[in-house]
Amino acid sequence: MIERSQKALLAKRIEEEPRRFIQVIAGPRQVGKTTLVRQFIEQCRIPVHFAAADLIPAGQSSWISQQWEVARLKLSGTEAHEALLVIDEIQKIGNWSEIVKKEWDADTASERNLKVIILGSSRLLLQQGLTESLAGRFEIIPLSHWSYREMHQAFDFTPEQYVWFGGYPGAASLVDDEVRWARYITDSLVETSISKDILMLTRVDKPALMKQLFELGCSYSGQILSYTKILGQLQDAGNTTTLAHYLNLLDTAGLLAGLEKFSNQEVRTRASSPGGGHGDVPENINLLTAVAFSVF
To answer: Mind listing the pLDDT tens digit for each residue in 223-245?
Structure first.
């Protein structure tokens, strides 16, 4: 099984360093966040309590405090000087960041050496919670799509296959049936990310426009495409400010990023948005390939 480089970084911060920050594993869906942490737990030398919020009702914020108490009992019930609490899919719990802040600060005040890892699929919700309540209390370990080396080691991908299919390990077994593979990417990853990671968390007045922008961005991947030109190709596009906002949301969800016009002068670079030229780039190349099959 592939061990990603972030596992060594996580082990260093948890096992070799004193308790200072909450470790946040964040990234797009289906890139192996939970797998990475479980690999680390199997080799971890301190007591660990792992809890997943997948099936917990969103309003049951007390669940987080309950898991925290279980981890504290593990720490007090052994001769170990430290313990670890891991909470997966924490973004599914309402008001999660306030509860985490309260429990973390309580441990700090009590000099309780309980270290914490939290994982989440929605970068947008994680970022909102982290910036609103946990400022100064966390470090992010970003986990993105798999590299070519990792895909080659795990699935014997050729460079051509990696360029075409990208770095989602969950879809690698489907590459022999490209239509099925494209359907999986769009239904299980793209649609889920847009509906759950954006539309459920942020007000979007024109969701159809956002999806059109994503498709257009994939179609023009790596090309210079100004917002003004986009306005002429999309129905009910509104204005460039709306498009810039939607592109930022797509970037936050790990789907599509816009590259600003390059200039040695920072002021000119900033001034290029939103009217100047941008190269829209899918954050994983297989999103572009899936669009090429016209399965939206």
So the answer is: 888 888 888 888 777 788 888 88
Q: Say which CATH number the domain at 242 has.
A: 1.10.10
Q: For residues 121 and 144, give the distance between their C-alpha atoms in angstroms, rounded to a whole number.
A: 11
Residues 73-116 have pLDDT tens digits of 999 988 889 999 999 999 888 889 999 999 999 999 999 999 99
Range of the domain at 228: 177-292
Same domain? 210 vs 288: yes
Give the burial class of 190: count Cβ atoms within 10 A of its Cβ; 0-12 exposed, 13-18 middle, 19 or more buried: buried
Residues 280 and 225 sit within 8 Å (Cβ to Cβ): yes
Confidence class for position 280, pLDDT limits 50, 70, 90 = low
Residue 147 domain flag: no
CA 144-150-152 angle, to 5 degrees, is 135
Q: Is position 77 within any domain?
A: yes
CA distance 19 to 139: 12
Helix (H) and strand (E) counts in the chain: 14, 7
Do 129 and 223 sit in the same domain of this protein? no
CATH number at residue 36: 3.40.50.300
DSSP 3-60: --HHHHHHHIIIIIS-S-SEEEEE-STTSSHHHHHHHHHHH-SS-EEEEE-TTS-TT-
DSSP-derived pairing of the beta strands 256-259 and 279-282: antiparallel
Positive or negative: CA dihedral 147, 151, 156, 157: negative
DSSP 78: S
In this structure, what token pair is assigned to residue 113?
């050496």
